[in-house]
Amino acid sequence: MVDPEAEYLAAEVINAGRPVTFKLLSRQLKVHVDQAKGMLFRFHRKQNAKKPGSVHATYHIIGTPKPEPKPDAKAHANGDSASAQDGEDTVMQSSPPMSSMQHEEEEQESAGEIVKRTAITIAQEQNLEAAKSSYETISKLFVYSLEPGPMKDTSVLSECYRRVEKEFSHEDPLEMCKVYGTAHNPNVTRRTLGKSAPPPVPVPNKAAANQDPRPSSIQNGTATKAAPTKGRKGSGSNETPKPTPQVDAAAIPAKAAESKGKKVRVDKSDIFASFAKAKPKKKVAEDQPMEDMEEEEQEEDFVEAKEVEDGATKKARAERAAKLKNMFNEDEDEPMNDAPSPTAETEQQEEAEAASPIDKPAPVPHPEEEQQQEFLTVSNGRRRGKRRVMTKRTHKDDEGFLVTKEVPIWEEFSEDEPAPKKAKIAVAPSGGKGKKAAGGAKGGAGQGNIMSFFGKK
Amino acid sequence: MAMLGGADVFMSDPRDDYQNELTRAPSFYSPLHIFDLPGGEAKHYQQQYADVYFLRLALLKPAVEQVAKEAWDDFELGGEKATQVDRVLDVRQGELCWVVGTVYMEMTLKPSILQDISKDHWISAPPTREKFISSNGVGDEFMLEDESGRLRLTGSHLQSQMLVTGCVVAVMGTENSDGVFEVIDMQVPDLPRQPQRWEREKGQKQGKKLQEDKPSGGKIAVISGLSLTGVSGDTIMLDNLTDYLLGESSDLGVKISRLIIAGNSLAHSSPIPSREEAVAKRTGPRKYGYDASAYNAGPSEQFDKFLSTILPSIPVTLLPGASDPANVTLPQQPLHYALFPKSRSFCAPPKEKSTKADWLDRVTNPWTGDIDGWRFLGTGGQPIDDIYKYVSGGDDRLDMLEHVLRWRLSAPTAPDTLWCYPFQDDDPLLIKDCPHVYFVGNQPEYASTVIRGPAGQSVTLLSLPKFSETREMVLLDSETLDVEVLVIKQGDCGNAS
């Protein structure tokens, strides 16, 4: 019989070389934390029986530590010198100068001697005995995590917690506590709001996690790696084979994007609009593997938003959330591409989650609505006219929040040259440049600076 | 080292029957909102701080007089009986008498607003003093003041006493030929009346019932100084703490019925950056307008995550501290709701006034309230840190805690050297009810003791260390108020032997 944990642990620890804590394992396999501790032990035993030293364990010790010797001499060293603060700031423990107040009790106990202490240590395999010997009694000892080899620092294990937070944040802790064995509190009071609209869940994650924990975790691993550069690289490499057949198709939308880019330059502030405007282009490039998934996600977001949008109060809240989100998006100086690359998408989603994790996801404002209109006259090489631009207005709302609103205003302008002409020139060398633009659009190299998007080409 | 029975139960292959559900002990919690400042228009700073001292003296004088009368009633010196003098200016030379007033400390190193104004060409503030008291005692004077005037104090007895600006005391002695009052003895208001356990609940009907239903052996965890920076590599400590609190690493954590966080949860989030922080910020190219890189959301996100992980299982009382993003004047008001996008679902929505305390209770600093029937009083540590600057010699924080209670002043040095709100009609910083537990966060080291008062009061004093430095959390038994310490040992840096 194959142990249920064997496959996952082999993939993670031995193949991928990543540590796995009991907590992560229990979340992945949906088992009780205590069972996960036993599973780690079993895997460690079996693997090292096959091939000694192939898996390294870290232990968790909890118990009563042996009393430590008191640093008496040190305590007296710092007198009343005004600058003696750094580091050596120890309270005199064993000889508190008696307060001269008239309280008859002389039974002031100095701290630490009578007080019961409990200690927790995370000790690696090779240090286990040393750590154990610093304890008077041990009340619990278990395998905390497995990793491919000795670690320089146990703090790398916190990576597992970040993964638990990321990948299982959609689970309702109040329901899952029975599965995982988290202490349950019958008196907990939580607003119902949190339940009606859970944060948007990435669909593929969920499905894969249910069927087969292994591939999903690897996928997630790359997608959700802490360092954003890594994630980007991963997605870029996914798509490198694609651009070649797309060149012709991409050239046309690239042109469109270029001309739109011109327009976008009119209102640089509205990054969000430019982001959305580039979307049609993505539709032309049909054979993108990620597209379906993205569409699905978005659709689900909308469905969710619709579902919960019933009461008037909720609507108002949604509007406020939308405003807030808008604000966030503008403020953030995020490198963004023409087309949303998978990472950009997740990033954005995360952002949305962060902005309104309880309140429902705000409906995405439709850029098409804020159509820009121009009235222009061309006279001796200069274009003059009026156009509608979106400007930001900040005011205080009745709850005291600063609200930034976009309001359309008419602005006069005068330019040197007709803009579209320039755009055409830029597109003309279709081969190399078009490819480059398309490649950039797919979330490859072009992820750099947003200014390059607006800059002259 | 000895392994207790069952200690190695997980050092074996897993069984399949781990479906035991751990249920956490309930926490009976009713906070008092005496430190809540009025909101909006009602909160203003037009009023004078002098009223704070006036009110303090008026409210504490009767208490001190009573203590002093009892102590010095039959006191005679050379056949002369000590008589009470009402105002400090009525003290006559050579007459043995006693008088009540507010202590004022004149110290050359103490910051003075007049100095600040005369030197306002300074570009940045001078470094804050570690101590106001000078090491050789030169330039430091003790004075006693009331509404009539000031009286300079002297005498060897003073040197043995802990005194800070703002505390109300009675002194006995004579004025010498220099016009200085020689102090023979001194009295303080001492501990106020202590409510009985479950006193507030007993008034209500179900109070008795609560007490009877209550399973014993619950614990109240108190922690301070998480000092999250968002970048520190030792988040593993916080993770271990989370596991412990959730009862995932050990079933010991299940006994904890409530977590109190006593300030400084975030490391560098004070609205007024410290001198060091300001200097650090100034380096680097200057940007105009909103600078996204100047704000780091990491710490507050980390804190929110921590809270949202433990909240499903454990209720939290959250006090702000000196380095938290709250107002800087005492009493600090609760941390804003918007800081907790994830965990705020455990609070009642803003503007909705509910009678029940929030599950995540964002409270003031100082804070007072009843937990499991006991009266708690706690601060984030600023008053004690400020008292430290007045005290020569050692750094016995427990002594300072004790004095604060016996002076009946949560923040004696406010408003002189500690920022506080200019209270007008009532001063909540006066301690009117003696707490059962007095905890102070962000102290250099863990310490605890029990002090007793003249009327049989018994107070557990807790000086809480900074978790970011000592990795210690204090557990209080909710029945006996016995203290226990949990330490997450750092150790183990993988130096393979």
What are the main properties of this structure?
heterodimer, A: 457 residues, alpha+beta, 50s Ribosomal Protein L17, Chain: A, 2 domains, four-stranded antiparallel sheet, 20 helices, 7 strands, 48% helix, 15% strand, B: 497 residues, alpha/beta, Purple Acid Phosphatase, chain A, domain 2, six-stranded mixed sheet, 21 strands, 21% helix
Please provide a written account of the structure.
The complex is a heterodimer of chains A (457) and B (497). Chain A folds into 2 domains: 6-66 and 118-181, 50s Ribosomal Protein L17, Chain: A; 228-454, no CATH class. Helix content of chain A is 48%, strand content 15%. Chain A contains 20 helices and 7 strands. Chain A has helices spanning 6-15, 22-29, 33-50, 72-77, 128-133, 158-167, 173-180, 193-196, 203-211, 213-223, 228-239, 243-266, 271-277, 279-284, 289-308, 312-331, 342-355, 419-427, 430-441, 450-454, and strands at residues 20-21, 56-65, 116-124, 135-147, 374-379, 382-396, 402-415. In chain A, the strands form 2 sheets. Chain A has a 4-stranded antiparallel sheet with strand order 1-4-2-3. In chain A, strand 5 and strand 6 form a beta hairpin. The radius of gyration of chain A is 30 Å and the shape is elongated. Mean pLDDT of chain A is 61; it is low at 71-112, 194-270, 273-309, 331-348, 350-357, 359-371 and 419-444. With 497 residues, chain B is of the alpha/beta class. Chain B has 2 domains: 29-43 and 194-278 and 294-487, 4-Layer Sandwich (Purple Acid Phosphatase, chain A, domain 2), CATH 3.60.21; 50-187, OB fold (Dihydrolipoamide Acetyltransferase, E2P), CATH 2.40.50. Chain B has 11 helices and 21 strands. Chain B has helices spanning 50-72, 113-118, 156-159, 199-203, 207-213, 235-246, 275-282, 298-310, 382-390, 397-407, 467-470; strands at residues 2-3, 29-32, 76-77, 80-81, 83-85, 97-106, 141-145, 150-154, 168-175, 181-187, 219-223, 256-262, 316-319, 360-362, 367-371, 374-379, 437-443, 447-452, 458-465, 472-477, 483-489. In chain B, a hairpin with a 5-residue loop joins strand 9 (168-175) and strand 10 (181-187). The two termini of chain B are 20 Å apart. Classes of the chains: A alpha+beta (457), B alpha/beta (497). Chains A and B meet through helix 3, strand 2, strand 3, helix 5 and strand 4 of A and strand 1, helix 6, helix 8, helix 10 and strand 18 of B.
